[in-house]
Amino acid sequence: MLDAAPLPGSKRVPMLEIDDDGGTSIDLWCASLRGRATVGDDSIAIVPGQLPGAMPAAPCEPRRQAGDTALLAALVQATRWRRIGDVVELSGPTTLRFRLMTN
C-alpha cells in the first residue's frame, strides 16, 4: 500500500502487488490495471497494461485522475528497489514508498 493518505473525497490508497511470476496488480487512486514486473536483487522494471477505457465504477475527480497519471508514470520510471523493514521503496526520478500489508 502506498505510504500516503487518501486524497480528499476518497478512502482509497494505491496498492501494488507483484506475483512470483511477475504478474502485477496496480490499484491507482481511481483505476486498477494489470501489468508485468521484472525484479532483480535491487533493480525493478514495471510495464503496465492498458488502463481500462470505461469509466471507473465510482466517479473519479480530476485531481485523482491526475494522480493516477503521475503515479503510473513514477512506477514506470522506477529502476531500483529496496526493503527497509515493512517498507518497500521504489526509486527513479520519483521515490515511492509502499508499506507491506501485514494483516
What can you tell me about this protein's structure?
16% of the residues lie in helices and 35% in strands. With 103 residues, the chain is an alpha+beta fold. The chain has a single domain, classed as Lipocalin (Beta Barrel), CATH 2.40.128.270. The strands form two sheets. A four-stranded antiparallel beta sheet has the order 1-2-3-4, with helices on one face. The protein has a three-stranded antiparallel beta sheet with strand order 5-6-7, covered by helices on one side. A hairpin with a 4-residue loop joins strand 2 and strand 3. The longest helix has 16 residues. It is globular, with a radius of gyration of 13 Å. The relative contact order is 0.20. The mean pLDDT is 90.
What would the keywords be for this entry?
103 residues; alpha+beta; Lipocalin; 4-stranded antiparallel β-sheet; 3-stranded antiparallel β-sheet; 16% helix
SSE topology sketch:
Elements: E1 15-18, E2 23-27, E3 32-39, E4 44-48, H1 62-77, E5 80-84, E6 87-91, E7 96-99
Antiparallel strand pairs: 1-2, 2-3, 3-4, 5-6, 6-7
